[in-house]
Design brief:
Length: 384
């Protein structure tokens, strides 16, 4: 954990998403190593982390970005540069001209989408390389909400729908089946791809192995991932390997700072009323669900005073808990929710019109720089 001094914390407006530069650089160093030791191109998945003020740092290491919509594609083209892989579960006809202007690679989720847009692509002045998303028939993800290979999935083409040969004009495959996964799940994915789609591999120019490779989590066996990717490369040297992680880039690279507004006692616990909302600002806590780490808090032990963190919306379930602290909490205390960079800012809403967290960066020299503050006008522009 970066040691943030109380004096710097006190200068940060509340609430605020704070990116920690030193930690982002640590994560990028992991991908720098991977790209150095094995021929693989790593992209940033914007759906997980789109904080474009940080892109100048990230693009020193990564080769480009992956986008899942025309707006993400435009943001990547404007702010990131480099390779741009665009995949959407269902492209809209009206978005295609802009996407074709930005994309270096485009991946279709079905043969019918490919057939629908193939004439447009052929007429494009600089057509992107085209791929299909496959369903590798394996995912280690147990939570259905995050399992792209669940029965009757709408994501990716199963082998029986591809026949014996690829349609003309298809250069690559995208396989996204992992989520916060390890190198052994990557190894198994490659085995499944070879097992179910092996007869297509001689025709491919590239294979995008999607996201979910949590190489920056403590304990991830990076050397094993390098070995697995290297062995695949040796078997298929003509295939360019691509990874498009999101979470792993922004993993544990920052926090959401909030302030205690009220303390409401009940017979069993104290509700801590915050100026942030779980449903609006940390939705994965409720969707996944999981209990975020709070700096300075611990799991309650027998006899501890219990604190439940309450969000600022009126949703009855907008709370997470319970936590214990080694001191009594007071109104005005700052509460720091760790690891709040990936799948937070990209998913926030202005539900209830709650004040939207600002965004800033804690530089590696310890100074804080505010990047964005939101206003009533931003709220008004969202709702009508
Ligand atoms: C196609 C695709 N690529 C990449 C990602 C990024 O995954 P992660 O943030 O888990 O690395 C996702 C996440 O849903 C995805 O659907």
């Amino acid at each position: 954990m970066t040691q943030t001094t109380d004096s710097v914390l006190a200068t940060i407006p509340s609430p605020c998403f704070v990116l920690e530069e030193a930690r982002l650089l640590q994560n990028l160093a992991v991908f720098e190593r991977v790209q150095k030791e094995v021929p693989v191109r790593v992209l940033l998945a914007l759906k997980a982390f789109s904080l474009f003020h940080s892109f100048p740092l990230i693009r020193k290491t990564l080769h480009g970005a992956s986008a899942s919509s025309v707006w993400e594609a435009q943001l990547a083209a404007e702010e990131f540069g480099g390779d741009l892989h665009v995949y959407s579960p269902a492209f809209r006809h009206e978005d295609m001209p802009a996407i074709l202007a930005y994309a270096s690679h485009i991946t279709f989720n079905s043969i019918s989408q490919w057939e629908r847009f193939c004439p447009l692509i052929k007429r494009s002045p600089s057509p992107p390389s085209v791929g299909l998303r496959i369903n590798p028939q394996y995912s280690p993800v147990e939570t259905a909400l995050y399992n792209p290979c669940q029965p009757s999935t709408r994501l990716g083409i199963s082998p029986e729908y591809l026949g014996q040969s690829l349609p003309e004009g298809i250069d690559g495959f995208l396989s996204h089946n992992l989520c916060e996964s390890d190198s052994y799940a990557l190894e198994k994915t490659l085995l499944h791809i070879e097992g179910f789609f092996g007869h297509f591999l001689p025709q491919l120019k590239w294979l995008n192995l999607g996201g979910g490779h949590l190489m920056t989590r403590q304990g991830y066996d990076v050397a094993h991932a390098i070995e697995v990717l290297g062995a695949f490369h040796n078997r298929y040297p003509h295939i360019e390997l691509i990874l498009e992680p999101g979470s792993a880039i922004a993993w544990e690279t920052g926090f959401l700072l909030s302030t205690v507004q009220d303390l409401i006692p009940t017979p069993t616990l104290t509700n801590v009323m915050l100026d942030v909302s779980f449903t609006a600002h940390m939705p994965d806590c409720l969707e996944m669900p999981y209990k975020p780490v709070i700096r300075g808090a611990h799991e309650p032990q027998e006899g501890d005073k219990l604190y439940r963190m309450g969000g600022s919306s009126c949703l009855a379930g907008d709370f997470i808990g319970d936590y214990a602290f080694d001191h009594d909490l007071s109104i005005g205390d700052r509460m720091i929710f760790e690891d709040m960079m990936h799948y937070t800012m990209v998913k926030t809403t202005m539900f209830n019109g709650v004040v939207h967290p600002s965004i800033g960066i804690l530089r590696k020299d310890g100074t804080f720089q505010l990047w964005r503050q939101f206003s009533y006008e931003d709220y008004r522009a969202r709702v009508g």
